[in-house]
Design brief:
The protein is 44% helix and 8% strand. By secondary structure, it is of the alpha/beta class. It folds into three domains: 104 residues, no CATH class; 152 residues, Rossmann fold; 122 residues, Rossmann fold, CATH 3.40.50.10700.
Length: 392
């Protein structure tokens, strides 16, 4: 979406300041604003930047201006708590400036790997396409391109190539198979969903991958796609329809599907997992959805014998962002790790020994922050605990 297309939304901000902290609990909400303590890093400042660009008072060639725009994690806290007209378009405005920058040749060097990786290997890490299915190499799981399946599991770029996170897709497949689900994967024939391209301003690449995903699934007769990548999930559910590409299949996050299987009795959680945990709500499973997936993960955790769930003060729609979203982990790793550590400190303050989430990018960033700041806290995906609780 170009800046010209959002011009009517550029004058809604009243500069009241409510976008800076969560109402009622009066806790900080914007990672970039809180890290740098400058108005231009908060949502209200970014709206002024976009307005000045549209009116020709600022130039896209200004490196410091673009730095502010690329510091947005896309957590949507500002949209959640802003009460003025057009508030639901704040991130659309940020995205339009990013798209405008790309269109005018201002290529962010940190995004070269993502762009060229997509162009050459269909993934954001520029890793070989033929290695995309390595995470499932020794699993006895169907290939959806060769055998008809009821459910397609889409691993996504991160879980396909980050070997430290392979336990998540492997656990998901094992859980579904144990529940009797006819599940298959695409393996090396899977491609990026396009969500990361959208976030950093490459609208053309996003549209290409959106079309590819929907057309490919339709050709295979896929009725249900399950993802454990929260970014990919919200991309297919929310972003594809924005460009009039509507999936003809059901899109479920793994926690939705697992919760359904628990309710129907196909998954039985009998083994005790003695652990005191706190749950981190990923932005793409919360504020990016309407309604957000807040109850299913908590109900799953409460169903596991031995688990004690303690809430952080900023939870559900008031969750603090992990800091990895919208390309910030690539463009500003210092901000990304700082935001993750803020969340880790909040988690430790509950007395929990482990932080549980349902997003690979959150898990990746938390693991990096645990090492960077020497934090004594275990990090789990919710699927890890479900797998432990299933009787052998």
């Amino acid at each position: 979406m170009a800046l010209e297309n959002v011009r009517e939304w550029l004058y809604g901000c009243t500069r009241c300041g409510t976008c800076k902290s969560f109402s009622n609990i009066f806790e900080p909400g914007c990672p970039a604003g809180e890290r740098y303590k400058l108005e231009s890093y908060y949502a209200s400042g970014k709206q002024l930047i976009a307005r000045a660009l549209a009116e020709g008072k600022l130039s896209l060639s200004d490196d410091e201006m673009r730095e502010r725009i690329y510091a947005c994690t896309g957590c949507l806290v500002c949209q959640q708590i802003c009460g003025v007209f057009h508030h639901e378009h704040i991130f659309d405005i940020v995205q339009s400036v990013r798209t405008e920058a790309i269109s005018n040749g201002f290529f962010h060097p940190a995004y070269a790997m993502i762009y060229y990786g997509l162009r050459s290997e269909d993934n954001v890490f520029r890793k070989p396409r033929n290695e995309r299915g390595e995470w499932a190499r020794d699993l006895d799981v169907k290939k959806a391109t060769r055998q008809k399946v009821d459910v397609l599991y889409h691993a996504g770029c991160l879980f396909s190539y980050e070997q430290e996170l392979w336990h998540v897709p492997r656990n998901i497949v094992s859980i579904l198979q144990n529940a009797g689900v006819d599940v298959g994967i695409m393996g090396e024939e899977e491609a990026c969903c396009g969500g990361k391209a959208y976030e950093i301003g490459y609208s053309g690449e996003f549209a290409k991958y959106a079309r590819h995903t929907v057309e490919n699934a339709s050709a295979l007769g896929i009725k249900t796609i399950v993802l454990s990548c929260s970014d990919g999930y919200s991309t297919m559910k929310n972003l594809y329809p924005k460009i009039n590409i509507v999936p003809q299949f059901e899109v479920l996050h793994s926690i939705e599907f697992i919760y359904q299987l628990i309710q129907t009795g196909q998954i039985k959680l009998k083994r005790e997992v003695p652990l005191k945990v706190t749950y981190h709500d990923p932005c793409h499973l919360g504020r990016h959805l309407d309604p957000g997936l807040y109850d299913p993960p908590r109900e799953i955790l409460k169903s596991i014998p031995g688990i004690e769930l303690i809430e952080m003060e900023r939870n559900r729609e008031k969750s603090w962002c992990c800091g990895a979203g919208s390309g910030v982990k690539q463009a500003n790793p210092e901000l990304s790790l700082w935001a993750a550590n803020e969340r880790l400190q909040e988690a430790q303050a509950t007395g929990a020994s482990a932080l549980v989430t349902a997003c690979g990018w959150c898990e990746r960033n938390f693991l990096d922050a645990v090492r960077e700041y020497s934090v004594n806290l275990k990090i789990y995906d919710i699927a890890d605990l479900v797998r432990l609780a299933i009787s052998p």
